Amino acid sequence: MTTLSQLNIDVDVVTWSRYLQPGEVLPPEPQNQFRVYRIGLYRNWDMTMPHTLNVLDWLYSCCAYDAV
Which of 14, 17, 28, 32: disulfide with 38, CB 3.0–4.6 Å? Predict the structure, then answer.
């Protein structure tokens, strides 16, 4: 990630958090040249994965990424 930032490439990071309510998405935390989005985990992967894909789809609709 540091190398990409050194090349002036904007980076968004999506990560799961056990400390958030299931399905909760925190606004991005700006850290240097990248943003961190935290998503609350559900109890099972059958709920977590579709929700994560929906968040990724939403992010992609907000700004077209060159790479994922």
Answer: 17
